[in-house]
Amino acid sequence: MEYHISQSAYLIKTISENDLQQFAQITGDNNPVHLDETYAQKTRFGKRIAHGMLGASLISAVIGTQLPGEGTIYLSQSLQFKAPMYIGDTITAQVTITNIREDKPLITLETVCTNQHGTAVIHGEALVLHEKAM
């Protein structure tokens, strides 16, 4: 596959109660802001929020399965958590190629997650290694 600047791919996922429970179990992140409604009601969010890294993992899924896809190796990822994700939010994780190195198989990607209202909840940049980039 040939890659080009501004090429993009995305996936869409609605965050569920089960997602939070499974993510907490897998990672050990049992922060009550994610799992305890009574606790979360007393926070600035007013209700439980999804783990930020759950959203970031959607970015990883796009990179590993779509763009650049199979064989991609993460080298770095910056993340800014811009807004909370709530149970029931539909998150679109999108990656867009911003640079392709000519001398090495490296691709830079803008990484963004938005909710169903178009609000960016996560923004960042990834650098990945992909042998088919050259």
Descriptive account of the structure:
The chain is of the alpha+beta class. It is 25% helix and 34% strand. Strands 1-3-4-5-2 form a 5-stranded antiparallel sheet, covered by helices on one side. The radius of gyration is 16 Å and the shape is elongated.
* Main structural class: alpha+beta
State the low-pLDDT regions, or none.
Answer: none
Write the CATH architecture name: Roll
The fourth-level CATH homologous superfamily is Hotdog Thioesterase
And the CATH topology?
Answer: Thiol Ester Dehydrase, Chain A
Strand arrangement within the widest β-sheet reads 1-3-4-5-2
Q: How many domains make up the 3D coordinates?
A: 1
Beta-strand residue percentage: 25-35%
- Report the span from N to C terminus: 10 Å
Write the layout of secondary structure elements.
Blueprint: E1 8-14, H1 17-27, H2 32-35, H3 37-41, H4 52-65, E2 73-81, E3 90-100, E4 106-114, E5 120-129
Antiparallel strand pairs: 1-3, 2-5, 3-4, 4-5
How would you concisely characterize the structure shown here?
With 134 residues, the chain is of the alpha+beta class.
Overview features:
single chain; 134 residues; alpha+beta; Thiol Ester Dehydrase, Chain A; 5-stranded antiparallel sheet; 4 helices; elongated
